[in-house]
Amino acid sequence: MALLSYNAIEVGLPAVFGWFADSGFRDLTGVRVPWWAWAPAGLVAIGFLGRRASISPCRHPCRSSSPPDRPWRCASGAGIHGRTSS
User: Fold this and answer.
1) Taking the C-alpha atoms of 71, 72, 77 and 81 in order, what is their torsion angle to the nearest 10 degrees?
2) Which candidate among 3, 15, 30, 53 keeps its CA 20 to 30 Å from the CA of 80?
C-alpha cells in the first residue's frame, strides 16, 4: 500500500508544480502557460540542480580520475584523496 501511495505522490508532484508555476506566472505577467508545459521544465531544473550538487564533502581532483576498481584511491598514486602514505 505504501509503495502505491509513494508512486501516486511521484506522479502528482510534477502536476502540482506545474499548476503552481502556471498560477504564479499568470499572476505576475498575465500570460497563461499550461501546467503540462511547466512540469517538464521543473523536472529538467531539478535534474540539472541535483546533478550539480554533490553529497560528498571531498573536492579532491582524484575523484574524477580514479580507476573504477578503486574509486577511493588517486590515479596519481598520491594515496587516499591526495594524502601521501607514510
Assistant:
1) 130
2) 53
Burial 8-36 (b: 16+ CB within 10 A, else e): eeeeeebeebbeebbeeeeeeeeeeeebe
Structural domain for 57, as ranges: 2-65
- Nine-digit cell at 48? 540539472
Q: Hey, which bits of the chain come out as E strands?
A: none
Residue 50, pLDDT score = 81
Total domains in the chain come to 1
The three-point CA angle 22-23-29 to 5° equals 85
The predicted-structure confidence for 2-24, as pLDDT tens digits, reads as follows 999 999 998 899 999 999 999 99
CA–CA dist 24, 16 (Å, integer): 12
